[in-house]
Amino acid sequence: MKVTEHLENAKKTLFSLEILPPLKGENIQNLFNHIDPLMEFNPPFIDVTYHREEYVYKKRENGLLEKKSIRKRPGTVGICAAIKNKYNVDTVPHIICGGFSKEETENALIDLNFLDIHNVLVIRGDAIKTEGAFRSEPDGHRYAIDLLEQVMSMNNGVYLDEELQNANPSNFCIGIAGYPEKHFEAPNLKFDLGYLKKKVEMGADYIVTQMFFDNQKYFDFVKKCREMDINVPIIPGLKPITTVRQSTVLPSIFHIDLPEELSDELEKCKDNAAARQVGIEWAVKQSKELMDFGVPCLHFYSMGKAEPVYKIAKELF
Ligand code: FAD
Asked: Pfam families given for it (predicted)?
């Protein structure tokens, strides 16, 4: 089923989660162990992120540079199929511009069709560490909106491969990213929302937000979207803080603010166990307020840590 159908049919706020593919060489069983307890809360869909391979260049003794892979998380499509099969739940693979030519994207989307996966989250992807700024492939997409256009073309039965012109149209439900605190490259929120609106006009079906810790930012974002006639569902993304360090790391990586009250609480924490407790309590408080506001779904960035999400969900669902 499509994410939007789940949202339309829901009688109460839904619980969903986003997981990362395991590092290359790790067993998928670790991922299942992560998901198993969370199935108690009946997520109608699970997102699986996509990560480009990261490299460093090391100088060999002979002076030549050697390209060395430092992080690999392959397998988004395969993992989506495995989760769908094991738990009978819909999966949402993240599809990114970075690292893909248009043809490779078309092939990945065809694979998803074969696997009966009809939801995708269409995003640009970030720059990898060795790039200063995001770089697309020579025959790839520069912005998420260009990738979205390709998915929409396939939904209309138009493929890049001319031999496929009589093939069946795809039927993807398309999610896109939204930033209550604006995307860090956008000069202002209005600029950012302009492209968000264009994506919705082009056919995006729903929005999932970047993590935020101050609900007011989400409420203001939804208000501005509605004023601009962006009327698709806006699913809030929530990340429970799990370590003391995250109070500085998350704002710097994700370009978001932490409310003073939360930073003060985290500063008092002597260890990560204390920070985790603060993170759980904050997320429960945030979630309750969001549920009262009437959000269709609470989407949790579990980032390899199921236990805090379990504890939060246990309080809410
Ligand atoms: P875009 O929509 O392309 O926007 C990027 C910037 O360019 C914005 O500032 C926007 O205002 C501007 N812009 C947009 N279109 C145009 C245009 N046509 N001309 C000029 N400017 C334009 N990253 C991953 O690598 N893998 C993941 O799995 C992943 N999952 C994510 C899930 C969610 C819910 C979110 C919120 C983010 C996720 N990201 C992921 C991170 C995401 O890839 C980055 O935030 C990326 O920098 C921007 O992606 P986007 O789709 O918003 O980009």
From this structure: MTHFR
Tens digits of pLDDT across the chain (317 residues):
999 999 999 999 999 999 999 998 899 999 999 999 999 999 999 999 999 987 777 888 888 888 777 778 889 999 999 999 999 999 999 999 999 999 999 999 999 999 999 999 999 999 888 888 999 999 999 999 999 999 999 999 999 988 888 889 999 999 999 999 999 999 999 999 999 999 999 999 999 999 999 999 999 999 999 999 999 999 999 999 999 999 999 999 999 999 999 999 999 999 999 999 999 999 999 999 999 999 999 999 998 889 999 999 999 99
Cβ neighbour number for residue 282 with a 10 Å cutoff: 21
**Where are the domains positioned within the chain?**
3-238+297-303
3-238+297-303 topology per CATH = TIM Barrel (3.20.20)
Q: Which of 76, 115, 106 is nearest to 93 (CA)?
A: 76
CB atoms within 10 A of CB 86: 14
Please tell me the distance between residue 97's alpha carbon and the centre of ligand 1 in angstroms: 9
Best substitution site from 17, 48, 94, 143 to test ligand 1's pocket, by max atoms within 8 Å of Cβ? 143
ipTM: 0.99
Mutate to test the pocket of ligand 1, among 120, 124, 225 (most ligand atoms within 8 A of CB): 124
